[in-house]
Write a structure and sequence with these properties.
heterodimer; A: alpha+beta; three-stranded antiparallel sheet; elongated; B: mainly alpha
């Protein structure tokens, strides 16, 4: 963490050099960067997206992995429950306002994410880490939908392996999902490795 | 801890602000600041603070005095004091948070950072820029690109006020 922070600060220093010339007398330059980071890390995710638009320095700052980690530390933990009968119903429990009260919000999967609609398989929640949810679709699908709670955005990743074995947790090392590439190697869209392991780093998917 | 220091003769400290004003406070009040505490442990009783201006220092001394006498019974009173304390302009808050950072008063820093965050979270990007006195250094194309990438974050009405 310390090294990460250091290298990143160097980057920010380079950015701030441009800034100093613009307006030397302004008060903002007197606000130390560590305080700015502290303040921004307390903001909710949607607000941070707006702040990215404010200037380049803020954008660099907010996009840094160091900042993501800090922001996540301040967040409250959530519990996600997927309904066994209807996979499209995901329930998210979270603590509200640091009180003992549990809030119950429903997260519904969008219909366009029902991969292979003809099949019987709905997206199945496979793994979640730091607010990123990894789903697997039907057994013939090459797509894995990923949902980030923080940004409320969906994206899909392509994977040459047909599917993760149902009801078995994928191998996870240091927050990265490791998928064994085996079948369907004749397909043109698969990489030329015979037996490889695809590593999906959940940490990188966060921002 | 407060009771043991009270039985002895009260030790005093002198704080000197960046505008050369001097303030005398009790040692037990001053040591809530880590920076002052370290100096006191090294035997100093005169503390120059070249990064803290008089205006901020007066407010911070008030805060320290109030919080030094913290007991279970005056909990509500301190809460009201804190609420009044942060009810000021953004520029004053930045000044105070910089001073609190320099003096290493973590509870005050926490409170001020949280206050600033709470007050800017519903503001529009334009208002945030003015509050922090920053210039937009994006080209219009770049700005549109960022806006488009996170379109939903920019939906709805935002607070344009600067207070």
């Amino acid at each position: 963490m310390a090294i990460e922070c250091f290298t990143w600060f160097k980057q920010l220093l380079l950015c701030s050099r441009h800034r100093d010339g613009d307006d030397e007398a302004n008060l903002f330059t007197r606000l130390p960067d560590c305080l700015l980071i502290d303040i921004l890390s307390r903001l909710p995710a949607d607000c941070l997206f707006r702040c990215r638009r404010d200037c380049r320095v803020w954008n660099t700052l907010i996009s840094s992995p160091y900042f993501s980690t800090l922001h996540l530390k301040r967040d409250r933990p959530v519990v996600i429950i997927q309904c066994q009968r209807c996979f499209t119903n995901l329930f998210v429990f979270r603590l509200k306002n640091n009180k003992e009260m549990m809030m119950f919000t429903e997260l519904l999967l969008e219909s366009e994410l029902m991969i292979n609609k003809v099949g019987k398989h709905d997206p199945h929640l496979r793994y979640s880490c730091d607010g990123v949810l990894l789903f697997s679709g039907s057994s013939r699908s090459y797509q894995y939908p990923i949902y980030t709670i923080r940004t409320q955005m969906w994206k899909k990743i392509h994977c040459p392996t047909p599917n993760l074995t149902p009801y078995v947790s994928p191998a996870i090392v240091n927050g990265a999902v490791h998928l064994l590439l085996g079948k369907d190697l004749e397909k043109p869209d698969t990489p030329p490795c015979a037996k490889g392991i695809m590593v999906l780093n959940m940490f990188m998917e966060r921002t | 801890m407060a009771s043991t220091t009270e039985t002895k003769q009260k030790k005093m400290l002198i704080l000197k602000s960046a505008d050369n004003d001097e303030f005398e406070i009790e040692e037990s009040v001053g040591v809530q600041s880590e920076t002052i505490k370290n100096l006191v442990e090294d035997g100093f009783t005169f503390v120059p603070l070249p990064n803290v201006y008089t205006k901020a220092l007066i407010k911070i001394i008030d805060y320290l005095k109030k919080h030094a006498n913290k007991t279970d019974s005056n909990d509500e009173e301190i809460k009201t004091f804190d609420k009044d304390f942060v009810n000021t302009t953004f520029d004053d808050l930045f000044e105070l948070v910089s001073a609190a950072n320099y003096l290493h008063i973590s509870c005050l820093m926490n409170m001020l950072c949280q206050t600033i965050a709470d007050r800017i979270k519903d503001k529009s990007p334009e208002a945030v820029r003015k509050i922090f006195h920053i210039n937009c250094d994006y080209t219009p194309e770049e700005e549109a690109k960022i806006r488009k990438a996170n379109a939903q974050a920019f939906e709805g009405q935002f607070d344009e006020s600067l207070d």
